[in-house]
Amino acid sequence: MQRPMALTSSLVYSTRSGAQFKGPERRIVVSRLSAVAALGLCLAVLLTSPSTAVTLGFMAPGSYDACPLPDRWSAPWYNQSLMIAIMQSSANTTSYRYENTGAFEDRMLAKVNTVGFFSYSGHGRTYGVYPGGANLHWYARSTSQLAHDSAMESYDVVNTCWDELRDVGLGPGLKWTVFYTCNFLTDGGSDYNKDRMMAMFKGLHLSLGFADSMYIEPDSGQAFGNRIYWGWELINAWHSANIMYQEPHDTTISKAVGALISKHDSFNSWSSTPPNYVPYVSPSKPGTESQFSTMWFVTI
Questions:
Q1: Does residue 172 have a cis peptide bond before it, meaning omega lies within 30 degrees of 0?
Q2: Which of 2, 38, 149, 280 is found 20 to 30 A from 202 (Cα to Cα)?
Q3: Rounded CA gap, 245 and 249, in Å?
Q4: pLDDT in tens, 164-181
Q5: What is the total count of domains within the chain?
Q6: Residue 165 located in a structural domain
Q7: Could you tell me which residues are beta bridge partners of residue 97?
Q8: Residue 252: left (phi > 0), alpha (psi -120 to 50), or beta?
Q9: Burial (0-12, 13-18, 19+ Cβ within 10 Å), 24
Q10: Contacting residues for 44 by C-beta, under 8 A, at least 6 apart
């Protein structure tokens, strides 16, 4: 039996061909200037909004050295720019920031759900490359094993997959995750992939990332962080910053997934703790899938 359509609210627009907003009952096409003007109005209204206290965590394996993948030296810079912008509010605190060989899987799994907001910046692998779904890709293996080579590329210790994040339990203390990397929120239209990706949500509100290849633009961290500081809703802040800095590159998809009740979360105000994600099985076992969306995305 085909599972019913989940309640979703999609936002889809392309900055190359004009902005296109798509919803269940309307289709409105506006110009790029109109979209920017609307964002500017939001900025003017929210500019003086103070931030509520949120704890922050950051990891960025920018150096990949002997790994076959190229270095991403700008990855730590992205996180640093994001942190500095958010920390304009003295209410927020940074619990940790690890970079290069200081960032690795075991450390992430131990610390990711000890903060309210977590950001990863570095390489990512789409589903199907290694087991467990899409993967975050590290260089260091531990505090004493600071590298891996091509023979270790597929080792679990340098790849953190959806299944591992499901097992560690994202939330309820952790509200929001940022994956500034390629393809981590790609499901290929498959219910199987979507369910594995969304199983990360055990009280998590929102996850922000990309559903295609992207380019690490460190100044985008400042743009995103400023919008958070100004009080923007996180989904709008994410898409707006990505539009600014991804548009000159190849087409990509900026994406947000999460609980419907958390759609309007900001650092000033957020929803109650969402339920765990449970996929639809049958009418008698509907799960909680209808309370989540994977359709908040922008094609840039």
A1: yes
A2: 2
A3: 8
A4: 999 988 877 899 999 999
A5: 1
A6: yes
A7: 58
A8: beta
A9: exposed
A10: none
